[in-house]
Specification:
Low-confidence stretches of chain B: none
Strand content of chain A: 5-15%
Oligomer: heterodimer
Mean pLDDT of chain B: 88
Strand content of chain B: under 5%
Largest interface: A-B, 30 and 26 residues
Largest sheet of chain B: none
Radius of gyration of chain A: 16 Å
Largest sheet of chain A: 3 strands, antiparallel
Structural class of chain B: mainly alpha
Helix content of chain B: over 70%
Number of helices of chain A: 4
Number of strands of chain B: 0
Shape of chain A: globular
Radius of gyration of chain B: 23 Å
Number of strands of chain A: 3
């Protein structure tokens, strides 16, 4: 039985997943399934986001004006995909959030160093 | 075993009342995901559907985000307007005072409960619009009452004051519960 509550871990994830989603879209547009997979693989399974959570989360970012979406018909036929790409507003938000994140992680690292 | 169509139909049902264009777009995106997911996991449809989770819960997240569509908000406003007409005592006027007053009070009670429900369920703006329709409904009710009594004095100055206060109260009742819900909701960890 672990000492720490699962809620604590869940809150940490919740607080950082939007930043990760924006970061994944920073370079190129992507579709939901691709984002899900990259998030899972790059985070080594830490962000094992429920699929039913990811899609509404992307739309929440869209409602905030941080990303835009559009449908793309695949060239080889098959089912269309909805692609998301970051907006200028989203890029500014990402830069601001990254700054906060960097300060937090550098600060925490220094503080935690003494406990290892 | 559930089919993709069966699952998506349940999600769609959970989104009833939302903007139909948004509903279609959501369903199309989830369908695209399910096809992608099945193709990636070696054809296991059940696993793909389980990955998305309970359709009602998925639908609720979209509903939280988008709320009711314009058609339903208009419907709510229309109902509030019609209810508003019947909240006016003079409509039931004549010599009978006690019963008509009671009837209009009952409508007023229903109107208030309805406005609070709209405000909480569809948001404070939809509630305010419904409250405004209720307000207009009451003015219309007063007009109908006055016309029916052919210029007879419809209300005393005191009565008109009460009438206006209650009418304005409807706006507040439409707006306040939704606003309170927004203010008291635990702030999420949103960027």
């Amino acid at each position: 039985m672990p000492e720490i509550s699962p809620e604590w871990t869940a809150e940490l994830k919740k607080g950082s997943v939007q930043l990760c989603l924006l970061a994944l879209l920073a370079r190129e547009q992507k579709y939901g399934f691709q984002i899900l997979k990259e998030l899972r693989d790059l985070s080594d399974g830490f962000f094992d986001l429920k699929e039913g959570t990811l899609y509404p989360a992307l739309r929440r970012l869209e409602e905030r004006g941080f990303v835009q979406s559009h449908w793309v018909e695949p060239e080889a036929g098959g089912i269309p995909r909805k692609y998301y790409r970051i907006t200028e507003k989203g890029k500014r938000a990402l830069a601001e959030a990254l700054e906060v994140w960097d300060r937090m992680s550098a600060g925490t690292r220094r503080v935690l160093e003494g406990a290892r | 075993m559930m089919s993709i169509d069966g699952y998506l139909e349940q999600v769609r049902r959970g989104m009833a009342g939302m903007d139909p264009a948004v509903q279609r777009d959501v369903v199309q995106e989830l369908r695209s995901h399910l096809h992608e997911s099945v193709a990636a996991n070696g054809g296991k449809l059940n696993a793909a559907i389980a990955g998305l989770g309970d359709p009602a819960a998925v639908a609720r997240r979209y509903r939280d985000l988008y709320g009711y569509g314009p058609a339903y908000r208009l419907l709510f406003a229309a109902v509030a307007g019609v209810l508003g007409v019947f909240t006016v005592p003079v409509l039931f006027g004549g010599e009978e005072v006690i019963f008509p007053l009671f009837l209009s009070a009952a409508f007023l009670f229903v109107e208030i409960v309805f406005l609070m429900w709209v405000s909480v369920q569809a948001g404070n703006r939809a509630g305010l619009v419904a409250g405004a329709f209720g307000f207009v409904g009451r003015i219309a009710g007063l007009g109908i009452g006055a016309a029916a009594q052919r210029g007879a004095s419809v209300a005393t100055a005191e009565g008109l004051g009460l009438f206006l206060s209650v009418s304005l109260l409807l706006l507040l009742i439409g707006w306040l519960p939704g606003q309170a819900k927004r203010a008291w909701r635990k702030p999420g960890a949103e960027l």
